[in-house]
Amino acid sequence: MGFFNKLFGKKEKETLNDGLQKTKEGFFTKLTKAIAGKSTVDAEVLDNLEEALIGADVGVETTLQIIEGIEKRVKEEKYISTAELNKVLQNEIQKMLTDANDDAYRNFEIPTNKKPYIILVVGVNGVGKTTTIGKLAHNYKKAGYNVLLGAADTFRAAAVDQLTIWSERVGVPIVKQEMGSDPSAVAFDTVQSAIAKGSDVVLIDTAGRLHNKTHLMEELSKIKRVIKKNISDAPHEVMLVLDGSTGQNALEQAKQFTAATDVNALTITKLDGTAKGGVVLAIANQFKIPVKFIGVGEKIDDLIIFDKQEFVDSLFKLEN
């Protein structure tokens, strides 16, 4: 994890701590009430803890798994004090999380044998998808890669304009066409351009509509097919961007998109503005898809690598 440790340094840790502050405050208030006046973990404490976890938008299914894990520990060890509960809870939560730490290209790295590395970015409008692409482009460029953007969300002029602004801000080229153009044609041209330019990383934006799931599936499938015409094993990554502040709505979006396409990476945004950060646990646990990045602020460097140990450590350290 040498390269990872370099990337997740003091600055990233401070950014994470600050970004999770609202979630931590809400969660700790509920957790403190759950164990108030108790010296051991009994049925009442577990009931209160269950309520606290669900209140933090961890979700019923994931909450029950966490509670079952704690009940098992209590049964095995016969005695667990409320002072020990935090550590036990941290361990159980960490088990629920899926991150990308085992992948050779888990961070702002790409495999040496996949060039250009194609990332298809999906998600509904308003989740911060285009902004996430801009921040990813910034980080990949900072890591030394040649980056190319593809504006395949051709149904909204604002989406193309916003991505163009990001391309200028970050200083990376963009492939785009007129509004209303065929998104798969833009994706095709983007990949061809990447091959011609010798690009390392390609980030392709897609339209974010859920009102017609059949159309969404067809559109994403077509985009993937035309990409494969140029690079047979691409896209190498289908990244779903979710807005963490929407809580259980984000979980529903994950259900819709994972049904529509082969999502293999997650980015969860806007965690700094919400007390619903527990939804990260629900999404990672239910879908078993690696969370690669989380957004904890509006600044260009506020998209950080997700590491489950760092995330849980931060969640249990309430700042004054």
> Any idea what the shape is?
elongated
Q: Which class do the helix and strand fractions yield?
A: alpha/beta
Mean pLDDT: 85
Beta content comes to 5-15%
Describe, in plain words, how this protein is organized in 3D.
Helix content is 52%, strand content 12%. It is built from 13 helices and 8 strands. It has helices at residues 2-7, 10-19, 21-35, 43-55, 60-77, 82-96, 129-142, 157-170, 183-197, 213-230, 248-260, 279-287, 308-315; strands at 117-122, 147-151, 174-175, 201-205, 237-243, 265-269, 291-295, 303-305. The longest helix is centred in the first third of the chain and has 18 residues, at 60-77. The radius of gyration is 21 Å and the shape is elongated.
How does the SSE layout of this entry go?
Elements: H1 2-7, H2 10-19, H3 21-35, H4 43-55, H5 60-77, H6 82-96, E1 117-122, H7 129-142, E2 147-151, H8 157-170, E3 174-175, H9 183-197, E4 201-205, H10 213-230, E5 237-243, H11 248-260, E6 265-269, H12 279-287, E7 291-295, E8 303-305, H13 308-315
Parallel strand pairs: 1-4, 1-5, 2-3, 2-4, 5-6, 6-7
Antiparallel strand pairs: 7-8
Helix pairs in contact: 3-4, 4-5, 5-6, 5-12, 7-8, 9-10, 10-11, 11-12
Quick structural overview:
With 320 residues, the protein is α/β, with parallel strands linked by helices. It has 13 helices and 8 strands.
Note the main attributes of this structure.
320 residues; eight-stranded mixed β-sheet
